[in-house]
Amino acid sequence: MKKYIFIRESGCFKKIDVQDIFYLEAARNYTKIFTEKKTHLVHAGIHAFEKELCPEGEFCRIHKGFIVSISKLDSFDNSRVKLFFRREALSLPLGGAFKRNIKQCISLVSRDYFFPEEPDFVKHEELENPGNKQNRSERKKKMKEPLIAKRRAVLK
């Protein structure tokens, strides 16, 4: 676990404590590093910081333009990540390609809501009869049948 990083700013190298970093934002060939006290602008791509910070498990890439500190994360849903930054609520986008990154970075009590899996009845059927390959439209119909039955029950 890295305790600090050095960045070049105003002609000299400055030490930044990794625990003070809230998030990083890409700005073309630059990266903005947001800490509690100051925002630093560094002439390096966000991918360089991703290689240094994300494997440690303290940071997670959530979008092609954002990396957030897991410890500063407040909440998230399917499209947004929320954190409190400088005493204000901040909402950052969660990119579709990076949803799996969050799954790997944090531990969820229930992954069903955020990462729904295939219904159990389809899995059991495939396990019982793996040689029976159905075409795609037949599988879709089987998956929709319970949903249609539930909707009809609600409407009655």
Features:
alpha+beta, OB fold (Dihydrolipoamide Acetyltransferase, E2P), 4 helices, about 30% helix, about 35% strand
Task: Give a structural overview.
The structure is a single chain. With 156 residues, the protein is of the alpha+beta class. The protein folds into 2 domains: 4-105, Beta Barrel (OB fold (Dihydrolipoamide Acetyltransferase, E2P)); 120-155, no CATH class. It has helices spanning 46-53, 99-105, 120-128, 136-155, and strands at 4-9, 12-17, 21-27, 30-35, 39-42, 59-63, 66-69, 73-76, 80-85, 88-93. A 5-stranded antiparallel beta sheet has the order 5-4-3-7-6. A hairpin with a 3-residue loop joins strand 8 and strand 9 (80-85). The protein is elongated, with a radius of gyration of 22 Å. The protein starts with a strand and ends with a helix. Mean pLDDT is 79; it is low at 118-128.
